[in-house]
Amino acid sequence: MNEIEERLEELRELGLYRKLRMVSGPQGPRVLLDGKPVLLLCSSNSLGLADHPRVRKAAAEAAMRYGIGAGGSRLLSGNMTIHRRLEEQIAEFHASPACVLFGSGYLANTSVIPALADEGDVVLSDAHNHASTVDGCRLARAETFVYDHCDMEHLEWLLQEADGRASLIVTDGVFGTDGDVAPLVDIVELAHRYDARVMVDDAHGVGALGPGGRGSVADAGVEDEVDVVVGTLGKALGSYGGYVCCDRTMAKYLVNTARALAFSAALSPPAVAGALAALEILRAHPERVHKLQRNARAVVEALADEGIETSSDTHIVPIPTGSGEAALSASERLLERGIFAQAIRPPAVPDGGARLRIAVMASHSASELTPAAREIARAVAAVAPAPAPQPVLDFDFATPAEVDSPRRVFDHLREAA
Q1: Could you count the other beta carbons within 10 Å of the beta carbon of residue 34?
Q2: pLDDT band at 408, cuts 50/70/90?
Q3: What is d(CA 215, CA 272) in angstroms, rounded to the nearest whole number?
Q4: Which of helix, strand or coil describes residue 23?
Q5: What are 137-163's pLDDT values in tens digits?
């Protein structure tokens, strides 16, 4: 057995082995999964726009007009008129002076953080931030301080410890595995006090919160006080790609310093056109956001009726199971009942922090969500009668040595096993 086979076997023994499942046909509230019809409760297609007829038509027409690929990075020949159109529309939607498109939200985070935090600087990152933010911190030459999840006292203490070197506070707006919302008003106040910039990854917030679905930053009323807002086209807008909203000077700076913009191909024109159509639908029909919020409340209330309390404030509803094996077992039980609720296991969460992650969509109906919540509660009870309390997701990359060690999580799991 070679090294790769040994590592795969180790993942199986730890209950962390993964395999790809196959969805046939378009994305929607119900899909064919490995040939079986299921209610889809783990999609980020939160507004149900990925298969909307207008979005499909726009993408198809763009393919005929512009072709499939952009042919290069945006700094070469890949910057097309359709890219500029989408940037202008997103900037207008967010009431932002400027917008810069990236190949994905992941690429945006791994480019913007190194661009804004150089050697001698300090980045302060929430312990629950997305993996792309963690990787962005690893790529930056700055020192990374990780503050306890949404803990403003800890953040202020670290700002004091930074002793004037703090250059950037970075946080998710809506946290992707917990569904809770960052205290952005408090973060902005601390940033002003300690002269630091604020960057918010609002991938899960856009289309889910705020007036017109403009996200957690707009919901908190701090649009003019956050320096950088990162968004995605691949969730509520049903397409693919990422973007950064900022002032015009920052946009020019990122065009000159963000490596992913310089060294990866520009977005496919059909994806851009699809996102444009989805954005038009969102702006014309903000009731989709309200439907998403009502559906989320329906699930939380139905789970509470079954004795499962959650701390979620959004359409992302985590249900702790403790072990990865329990989460996987509950997910498989639900699949047998025609419900696809994904098990989230380490390293996406720390050891002992596995859960089912329910992601509600606006295109679901209450009549299917309420009975699904009952089935979820039964499945969780069957595998984990007494679920452990939801743990703090603390990867605590507090020193440069730890930040530069991408194998740290798996090493920790090996030691724990």
Answers
A1: 12
A2: very low
A3: 20
A4: strand
A5: 999 999 999 999 999 999 999 999 998
Rg (CA), the chain: 21
CA distance 75 to 258: 11
- The pairing of strands 36-40 and 30-33 is antiparallel
Name all domains of the chain by residue range, CATH numbers in brackets: 15-44+286-383 (3.90.1150.10), 53-283+395-416 (3.40.640.10)
Reported as a single tens digit per residue, the pLDDT across 331-357 is: 999 999 999 999 988 877 777 888 899
SS3 167: strand
**DSSP-assigned letter for residue 174:** B
The pLDDT tens digits for 7-16 are 999 888 877 7
- Contact present, 87 and 238 (Cβ < 8 Å): no
Question: What pLDDT was estimated at residue 351?
Answer: 77
Tell me the one-letter amino acid at 97. Answer: P
Q: Which residue has the tokens 């006080």?
A: 225
CB 210 within 8 A of CB 218: yes
Length of the chain: 417
Report the C-alpha gap between 116 and 124 in whole angstroms: 12
Give CA–CA dist 71/261, Å, rounded. 14
Of the candidates 251, 208, 249, the one whose C-alpha atom is nearest the C-alpha of residue 232 is: 208
**Nearest-angstrom CA–CA distance, 196 and 147:** 15
Identify whether the C-beta of residue 86 lies closer than 8 Å to the C-beta of residue 272. yes
Q: Could you give the 3-state DSSP secondary structure of residue 145?
A: strand
pLDDT digits (tens, 9 = 90+) for 374-389: 999 999 999 864 444 4
